[in-house]
Amino acid sequence: MKSQLFTIAIAAFVASLSYARSYANEAKSEQRMNVLFLASDDLNSWLLGDTNRYAGKVVAPNLTKLAESGVNFKRAYTAAPVCSPSRTAFFSGVAPWTSGHYHNTPGANSSEPLKSALSMAGFFKKAGYSTAGYGKITHGWDQGEHWDEKIGHKRDPAPPGAPLTPSGRGEQDWGPIHLAEEEMNDTLNVDNAIHRLQQEHDKPFFIACGTFNPHMPWYVPQKYFDMFPLDEVTTPELREDDLDDVPEWGVELTLGKQKYVDSVFEHGLHKEGVQAYLATTAYADAQLGRVLDALDKSPYRDNTVVVFLTDHGFHLAEKHHWQKATLWEEATHTLMMIRAPGVTPAGGAACERFVSLLDIYPTLAELCGLEPPDYLDGRSLVPLLRNPEAEWQSTAITGLTSKGGPTWHPYLSIRSETGRYIRYVDGQEEFYDTSKDPHEWTNSIGDPEYASVIKRMRAAIPSPSDAATPLPEVLKNTRE
Ligand SMILES: [Ca+2]
Ligand SMILES: [Ca+2]
């Protein structure tokens, strides 16, 4: 039996090699595929509906249409639940537990391993692509020399009289914006991306476009608020004592936001907050839809890979927290959609395998027939793009430190079909059986029923001490 299995495995391996060769040759014989890389900031996974805990209405017809025309990864997770380390990870292909970059501060430039990495833009540029980026794509780690054109993101000015909410403080505020939609920065960045798409391209292109919305503050035109009448807005389900079984380091992650959540509740504004988040999401979707429409109307529709992702999730009072920077489902679960003409099923498909945003870099490389750098921490999702139900070793890892905390003591979380495991400094842990407890309400770390599952997940946690080692040595160690 064993030898039979071995023979089958060898045959499959040989078949996959010859397939990979023919695919690469095919790609080389014509012009390579273009890439349209789209991102949103702080957009959580509510729009996935059936795999999430939120029962309310998200209006995102354009992202829905994209999801239905490619592969919609319903179990995609960020490598870090904060802007800079998340974006640096997917754009460099280097995981936080390799780079040591786990939070917005200290900046990515203090990471030795990242100095030897090549950004995705640089990778495509070196392969002969034209590269252009508009809006929020990277955060703190960019390799600007690899962009032929790069117009970064600017925040819209706050409306006169801001804060507009009685709970408002800093960026945690919302309300109708005083600008016309066509004057807003996300709109202008999308205009630039459309303009670029509409040009004639004599070589393959990598065009990236990222919306800042629905990052806070939530200032968008009134019409987007009007799409969500308050009496129809559903708020996420909460449990009053949810933090009681969370280790102190996990609770610490929420401390900075607890007063804000209290203030939202004191003013009776939870529903309004959710409404504003949905409104900014609808605005972001409308903008992304304009780029997608422009692609569809261009000569490049059938030779352009489209990827859409969001850098991490967002809490709206779950676990008494607001925003991001936790290791629970709300902050780690992301959106990832990929449409690859000739590869993804024409009628679209959902994929339930657990994947990471780190997988995007090697996936795009393979789709474009290019050899990826050998240091990448992710793995190509092409087998899942061809067959979303393919066998897959399914785990997704997320890392974080407390703000400005030591990177050699990161908190790490693993998510797979068996649940979520988190380990903080000093070995404090959480485990959730997500099949019975999708809200991650009951920390079952001490339950003997899960002892063997927890043991396996513990063993899969990467060694963060690697982050102290320069890249080449790290790579040698981790590639085995
Ligand atoms: Ca973000
Ligand atoms: Ca709990």
Q: What can you see in these coordinates?
A:
The chain has 480 residues and is an alpha/beta fold. It has one domain: Alkaline Phosphatase, subunit A, CATH 3.40.720.10. It has 15 helices and 17 strands. Strands 1, 2, 3, 4, 6, 8, 11, 12 and 13 form a nine-stranded mixed beta sheet that branches. Helix 2 packs across helix 10 and helix 7 runs parallel beside helix 10. The chain starts with a helix and ends with a helix. The protein binds calcium ion (2 copies). One calcium ion binds next to loops.
List cofactors, ions and other ligands. Answer: calcium ion
What is the strand content? 15-25%
> How confident overall, as mean pLDDT?
90
**Record field, number of beta strands:** 17
The helix/strand class is alpha/beta
Tally of alpha and pi helices = 15
Indicate the overall shape: globular
Q: Helix content range of the residues, please?
A: 25-40%
CATH topology call: Alkaline Phosphatase, subunit A
In whole angstroms, how far apart are the ends? 28 Å
Q: What is the count of structural domains?
A: 1
Radius of gyration: 22 Å
The poorly predicted ranges are 1-29, 466-480
Write the layout of secondary structure elements.
Blueprint: H1 2-29, E1 34-40, H2 61-67, E2 71-77, H3 83-92, H4 96-99, H5 112-115, H6 120-126, E3 130-135, E4 149-151, E5 174-176, H7 185-197, E6 205-211, E7 218-220, H8 222-226, H9 248-266, H10 270-297, E8 304-310, E9 315-316, E10 322-323, H11 329-332, E11 333-339, E12 349-351, E13 355-356, H12 360-367, H13 382-386, E14 395-400, E15 411-416, E16 419-423, E17 429-432, H14 451-459, H15 471-479
Parallel strand pairs: 1-6, 1-8, 2-12, 2-13, 3-4, 3-6, 5-7
Antiparallel strand pairs: 2-11, 8-11, 9-10, 14-15, 15-16, 16-17
